[in-house]
Every structure is written in structure tokens, then in C-alpha cells.
Amino acid sequence: MHRRSHMRAAIAMTIAAAATLAGCGGPSSGNGGSDRSGVTEITLWTWQSTIDDFVTAFEKTHPDIKVKAVNVGANENEYMQLTNAINAGHGIPDVVYLDFNAVHQFAISDQLRDVSGLGYDGIADDFTSAANTNVTVNGKPYGLPISSGPMVMFYNKTVFDKAGVTSAPATWDEYRAAARKIAAMGDGKAHITNDTGDTGFLTSMLWQAGAKPFSVDGTTIGINMKAKNVSKFTGMWQRMIDDKLIDTTTPMWTDDWWHKLDDGSIATVLTGAWLTSSMEKNLNATRGQWRVAPMPQYSAGAHENSENGGGALALPKGTDDAKTKAAYTFAKWFAHDGGVKVNLGQGGLPPLKSVLDDADWLAEASDFFGGQKTHETIAAAAKDVLPGFEYLPYMAHANTVSVDTVGQAYHGKFTLQEGLNRWGETLKDYGREEGFTVK
User: Fold this and answer.
1) Using one digit for the tens of pLDDT, what is the confidence trace for 107-117?
2) Whole-angstrom Cα distance, residue 163 to residue 68?
């Protein structure tokens, strides 16, 4: 079955007000409930490379639950496998990691369990408001937040110093001025940042500008790429593109990208705070040169931010009901209890108020970031996230088709705003095809 057909089948269950999912309450993997020794085995799907550390720690304190971690692919590959399993009615994981935008996609299709009655209501207030918003669909929570990505600016202080930029840009005007100084250092090889049209970055930047291009009300969705504040971002960023101040040829996560970060060719990265641990693992020559600063603002003194990345552990429908309690126990442990210490030890950022307010955590200094107390900046960034941003219920699809619309703006085919307009029309057509009412 083609990808579109899978998504249409999933979403149609809600659109047509279908009854309970086929196989709901049936076996997820043929293991049933507890075995003869009283041990319940649950299956976890995640692409997290360090998941074994969590599983080992959990099983030491929960000997009656065994966690089988399976990597069926990252992001859209996992989502496709999950859709396949749910449609087939078997092979469904008991707990699955989903990016926040995917939580919305599967929840609106009635494919996830509402976790409020399982105990989440009792701990919801311990998470940040942004985290709760990210797992809430139509007023109900459909996952336990385990990671967050408040946007920050990582910048190479050594490059800034050489260019004569004496402090981290506090506004986007200052950021553009810094970009000019860096570009003037030599041969056009240095850029303040890179952007090749990544959709996650795009939506984060729209969010930070205060734009709300998407709205969701049940099966009615709104898509407006000319909404208030959209032009605030597109106008600012288009000038950066036109003046060739952005590297538009180097995609993130490639070897070339890491090399350019490590030789100073790319001087800033605008992304979620989760990048700290990856930078520490992948950069050597510039160790000690990087710093973390708040995102530049559109007006001096403002404190407006967004998120990039982050996700939750969700419990799909269609699994064995006897395993649901064990699956929730693991998810809660990971998000709220013992797993928090493991997460922090790996450089993660659990979206818990207790973490963001912890004096010891805030006071930690990072050798990689030149002795800076980076957590202070990250905590403030998390508290500045603007409320009310919504994702489409088919954001995974939206991400894949943006390359043919918004992505072309980075090749000079048309302006960024025109790319957004074309993307919006494509998303409206797709929404109607999937049975949504689109306005």
C-alpha cells in the first residue's frame, strides 16, 4: 500500500467516526500478559540510540516488567510501520516514541490511548505548559513528554571575535549585521548559519515570530500562509538569503555540515537545545569555542521563543489491555521518575518544571561551551516558548512535500513567501483528499 493510502486509512477512522479500531484489546505481539514467572514483557519502539541505558535502569527497579526495545526506523519510517501494524491489527508496540507533531497525527486518527485515566492527570502539572500542549489533542493527553527542544542560538565565539562581533546578537537586525561581518572575513566561505529549507526549522521560526499558520478543530483545519506575523519571518530571512548570508547548500547532519561547524565556516546553529550533547560528541577542533545564547528577537527586550524537536512516549490502541498498565509504568518512569536522571546524564532535557528550576542543574558549567552555565540559558528559553502553536494532523506528510515548494526558494526559484503559499495550497489539497474540512 502506498504511503498516502496508509495515512488516508488511518485518518479516515476519525473522519468517518468509525468504531473502535480493529483488534483493539487483542494481542499486540503474541506475548499476552504476564508469563508464568509473573513477568510482563512490553514492546517499545524507538530510534533512540541510547535506549539500552534506560531499559537496564528500569528493569533493575521493576523486575516484574521486561522491556523489549525495537528500532523499526526513525521518524516517518517508524510512523509508517506503526500505521501498518495498527491497520493490520497485530504487531503493535505497547509503547512508542513519537515526535510531538506525530502525537497529534496519531491522536486525531484515534490510534492512541488517552493517558489521563492511567495516571497522567496526577502528574501533568509537573511538566511545562508547552510540553502539555504538545501532547494534548482536543483537550485530552495522548502521551508522556520525555524530551523538549526550546530554540536557542549556538554560536562560535572565536569566529565572532575574529569578525569583530563582540556579543551575541540580541535582535534579528543585530544578527544580520553580524552575518555581514562574518561573510566579509574571506572568500565568501564563511556564513553565520545554514538553511536548506528544513521544515522543522521553518515551523520553529514561524512559531518564534508569533505566526500561527495552522489551526485544528476536530476534523476542520485551517491553513493560512499569509496569517499575522508570517511575513515577519519571511521578510527578515529573505533578505538574508538574497544577500547570500546563509549557506543554502549544506544540509544539517551531513558530514560536511559537522566539518563546517568544526572549521568555523558555519558560525551559528539555530535549533533545539538538545543539540548540546551531539555537539559535544561530534566536534573536536572547536571544543571550548561554542556558547549558547537566547534566540535573537524581532524587537529589543522581547522574550519570545519556540521549540524544535522533542517528543513523547505514547500508548497505541490495539495492544493487549493486560499490558497497558506495564507500558504506562515504563512511560511514567522514563518521563517523570527514575528515567529523568538517566536522561539528564545523557545531556537530555526532560520538560519538567523541577528540572528547569533545579539550582544544581542550573549551576553546572560546561567545558565544551567554555565553562558557560548553559542550563541557565536553556531553562529561560524553555520558559519563553509562546503558547498556542498548532501542528497539522498530517505533519509528517507536510514535511516531505515542502522540498518541492518552500525548498525551491533556497534555489532562487521564487521567494520564501511564495514558497510558503505554494506549500499551503498543496497542504489544503491533501487535507481535502484525506476527508478534512479545510478553510
Assistant:
1) 988 999 999 99
2) 51
